[in-house]
Amino acid sequence: MASARFDLSGRVAVVTGGNGGIGLAIARGLAEAGAKLAIVGRDEAKNGAAERQLLNAGAEAIAIRADVTTSEGCASLVDATLGRLGAIDILVNNAGTNMRKRPEAYGLEEWRMLVDVNLTSVYLACMAAYPVLKQRGGKIVNIGSMTSIFGASFSAPYGAAKGGVVQLTKSLASAWAADRIQVNAILPGWIVTDLTIRGRAATPDLHDKVIARTPAGRWGEPDDIAGAAVFLASAAADFVTGAALPVDGGYSAQA
Ligand code: NDP
After folding, report:
1. How many domains does the chain divide into?
2. Is position 104 within any domain?
3. pLDDT digits (tens, 9 = 90+) for 46-78
4. What is the CA 77 to chain-centroid distance, rounded?
């Protein structure tokens, strides 16, 4: 029998970037634990396919088209979720992107885009959801990265933004604990998704370097992240807030 501590029956979860990769795996995990799902992305085809996958698995799920880099997009995803699912109890800020090059090769527009997608979106979605979450308490799970802790010569704006995600997580956890809102981050190691398939195409030795550096001796799969998300979204984590949990096969544990 599943533990009641991890039971999300009756809860409504929003997962930004939930139409593929890590976000869709988290959405599946939350749905398996009983939550209703709103997945958010810009691409209608990916949204539709992910929504069908969740519905076919027996979940109650909707897809919402929104750009999380704008206040309007974040307001619309909150309104659509409330309108169609009636509540928001869990917000997973997972949307993100990267562009790999040396720091001096980025233009200002590229810097702004990367900070907007990876950091400002988290702030905007949290602000849009806060009035709803504080009504009965809730959970926010932000997706950081190994670059939240380590520097990466090929991802300076992404790393700056992902470092910011952890500090924003701690500040919101401090500010909103009295509202019974727990705010935590997951720091994934190297996971096989469209994002890293692009990275591996651009950097041919990346695949082997990651395996050599990871004690578990493999790349992660999106499903490897789902369990930590279910934990942080559940009553089992009611006294866990402001934490940044690596889920990385030991990557960050090894010198
Ligand atoms: P994917 O590229 O597979 O997924 C990114 C998701 O973000 C897509 O669903 C995309 O949907 C959505 N998205 C991007 N921009 C926006 C936007 N402006 N508004 C709304 N949605 C947006 O990547 P991953 O699954 O790999 O990445 C998910 C998260 O995990 C990211 O935050 C990433 O930085 C992080 N991460 C990934 C790691 C990995 O090894 N893969 C390692 C560490 C962290 P759409 O295009 O439809 O908008």
Report:
1. 1
2. yes
3. 999 999 999 999 999 999 999 999 999 999 999
4. 15
Q: Give the ligand 1 atom nearest the CA of 116.
A: 18
Cβ < 6 Å from ligand 1: which residues? Answer: 16-17, 19-23, 40-43, 46, 67-69, 94-97, 117, 143, 145, 188, 190-191, 193-196
Whether the CB-CB separation of 221 and 177 falls below 8 Å is answered with no
- Written as six digits, the tokens of 70 are 């704008």
123 catalytic residue (yes or no): no
For helices 156-176 and 121-136, the axis angle rounded to 10 degrees is 20
Asked whether the whole model's pTM tops 0.85, one would answer yes
Q: Is residue 253, in this structure, part of any structural domain at all?
A: no
Query: Please, are residues 144 and 185 in contact by the beta-carbon 8 Å criterion?
Result: yes
Question: CB count, 10 Å around CB of 4?
Answer: 10
Quick one: what percent of the chain has pLDDT higher than 90? 95
Q: Which amino acid is at 201?
A: A
What's the pLDDT tens digit per position in 13-27? 999 999 999 999 999
Closest to 67 in 3D by CA, of 41, 97, 98: 41
Q: What is the pLDDT of residue 2?
A: 64
Distance of CA 212 to the CA centre of its chain: 26
Atom index in ligand 1 nearest the CA of residue 46 equals 47
CA 198 to ligand 1 center in whole angstroms: 12
- pLDDT value at position 140? 99
> How far is Cα of residue 20 from the mean position of the Cα atoms in its chain?
11
Structural domain contains residue 62: yes
Is residue 110 one of the residues assigned to a domain?
yes
Distance CA(229)–CA(27), nearest Å, equals 9
Boundaries of domain holding 107 = 2-247
